[in-house]
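Let's practice the habit of predicting before peeking. Look at the sequence and jot down your guess about where helices and strands might fall. Then scroll down.
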Amino acid sequence: MSPPLTRHNRPRQVLDAITTANAALSAKDRAAKYAKLGESPYRFFRGTNHLYWDDVWHDWRFALYGGLPETQTWLQGDAHVYNFGAYGHHDDAVRYGMDDFDDALIGDYQYDLWRLAISLVLDARENAALSGKGTRKALAALVEAYVDELGGHVRGEEPMAVTLETARGPLAPFLEKVAAKRSRAKMLEKWTTLDDEGRRFAERTDKLARLPAHQASQLRKAIEEEYRQTLGGTRAAAEEDHFRVKDLARRLDAGTGSLGLERYYVLIEGGRDHEHDDVILDVKQQTPPEGWRLMNPAEKRAWRRAFPHEGARHAAAFSAIAEHPDPYLGWLHLGETVFSVRERSPFKDDFPTHKLDGAKPYRKLARQWGRILAREHLRGARALHPDDPARFARSVCARIEGRLEHFVAMVATLALSYADCVGQDYRTFVEAEATIEEEEAGAAIG
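Done guessing? Here is the structure:
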């Protein structure tokens, strides 16, 4: 008789992890999310951040070039190439960078750098059609630019944000196009209607849904009361009419990893100078970042002492990491569920990497990704250690000094190998879903 087989095999681990991570979703939301996961290996990678963190949390390689208290900083937590994009908020200036901090946590810098490098490989294969050589060169450009940006900070150089005025390479025409085609007025025209009764959300049944009266009343009260108490700066002192709620709606089918979480759009008065100064607030359910799930009990207790709830954690991370924090940043509760609140950016747009013409422009963009990630880590470390803001950069540079070539090779090897694993996991998932569909179809016929 054959000995019983354990469930400790990769296909079973992947399928069990996906089932557990999505157990709380409704059948409809789960089906929608699984459909997105089945689109491509890169989409699968985006929607299964929990698998990545399971795999790397105890990876011994992080000790070679980090793994110290001094090499920790605020992490983006879900770094991938499509988490970079155009954005802009209150000052209507168009910028390029990372603007999503739902999964942010404090940890070793390499967890972000590795994930970003893996996503580069997946994107280069799926969207940019780079050769293996082109992909390896892009990885080297990414990692070298990251390290160079940290070194510049140690040398006292001032970092330069990527804006409409400073953008170089493929980002310059991209930001020019975003600035030309997007604006606050155009965003309001897209999402709202204006008539004799005022402005309200448009009927977009694929994107927005009306709230039942009791939910609308609860959300309106939370915006006008609790949320306002979480604001700082000039927004905290804004006159009450600034936050008058004009309309509310449920946001549908947004995101990949976050699909199934509660999300709302709230239209508030904003200014009163003209008809296009209304503000759309993005109210999004916050859950613990994937890395939190893997902490031991003592670490979780310390985490909760620092951040009483995930709304506070999100706001702290956003304020620490973001180059230009949103003045509408705050949080609120609906029952026991906590939500982040921020302004919906009028300039939100992704860079279309599939339109890049060859490996050289892709390398230029990869260098920008590396520098932007480094600047985020520098800002995060400064927030954690304001008395010695250069400590993080010094420590990482000291770990890498004299071994940059090996560091680049290690990250590249990890990224290429893990991207292969993602492709394998993706096929496991797609085949399992196809089998389930066949069984359900057979049962229906029978």
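How did you do? The mean pLDDT is 92.
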